[in-house]
Amino acid sequence: MKETPFRQGETVYHEGDVSDCAYIIASGSVEVSRAASDGAVPLAHLHAGQIFGEVGVIRDKPRSTTTRAATDLTLLEITKTDFDTAFGQNPLALTLLRMLCERLSHATQRIYETALDSGVAAIADIAEIRLRPGSPEVEKQIGRDGVLVEGLPFSIGRRALAGDPPAQHDAELLLRFSRPYEMAPRHFVLEEKDGGLVIRDLNTVLGTLVNGIRLASFEQTDSKPLRMGVTEIQAGGLDSTARFTLVVTGR
């Protein structure tokens, strides 16, 4: 493994960078944080012997945090190629690792959201709610600029396919998906609750992921208050193309 030194205060990687390697701390310590509207939210403080950066490598997704040398630091670098070589011949091990990494990612998201103190987006303070595409499949249907949400409640669902039961309610936005399990005919709704903006899963089989946290009738909750700014939404399972970016701006 390649040995890489960092001086105190130097950044190892930024949130959004490509996940091309993981690190083991040989000496020193590392601060882990995530950006927020009013600064960085600290998430963890890691020390010699601990590993970090592996979640993005295994999930094959960009960095979800920023890491910085809290002291003078020496890291051992494990490349993505080495990871793939080590686990590529054992699909079960790789599947289990990915599952554990998803759970770790969700736990980190909960810590992050608990640390935020910006509060729920009050309906009276909202200037615009816009649902943008989060995948090429959705962009083809609603365009790059997405859909302006002009009234609440606003529900999103899938156009009916052969064999679907008769619709009991209309959805404001209906999309086409060839795989019916990606999105239910009525999947989630944006609505007002106690003066704030809320997203709620509509009792679907696979639930709705909101910033990596699953809302569903079989989870701890089926709804979540929304804050100003950007929220990532995915209907259905982890491989679903029914992905959206919700942008809430203030007055």
Describe the structure.
The protein has 251 residues and is of the alpha+beta class. It folds into 2 domains: 2-115, Jelly Rolls; 123-250, Tumour Suppressor Smad4 (Sandwich). 18% of the residues lie in helices and 39% in strands. A 6-stranded antiparallel beta sheet has the order 10-9-19-18-15-16. It is globular and about 55 Å long. The termini are far apart. The model has no long low-confidence stretch (mean pLDDT 84).
Determine Rg (CA atoms, Å).
Answer: 20 Å
Shape: globular
Q: Helix/strand/pairing class, anyone?
A: alpha+beta
Q: In percent, how helical is the residue content?
A: 10-25%
CATH class of the largest domain: Mainly Beta
Q: What proportion of the residues form beta strands (DSSP E)?
A: 35-45%
Number of strands: 19
Q: Domain count, please report it.
A: 2
What is the average per-residue confidence, as pLDDT, rounded to a whole number? 84
CATH architecture of the largest domain: Sandwich
Q: How many angstroms separate the termini?
A: 51 Å
- Major beta sheet summary: 6 strands, antiparallel
Largest beta sheet: strand ordering? 10-9-19-18-15-16
* Unreliable runs: none
Number of helices: 4
Query: What is the multimeric organization of the chains shown?
Result: single chain
CATH fold type of the largest domain: Tumour Suppressor Smad4
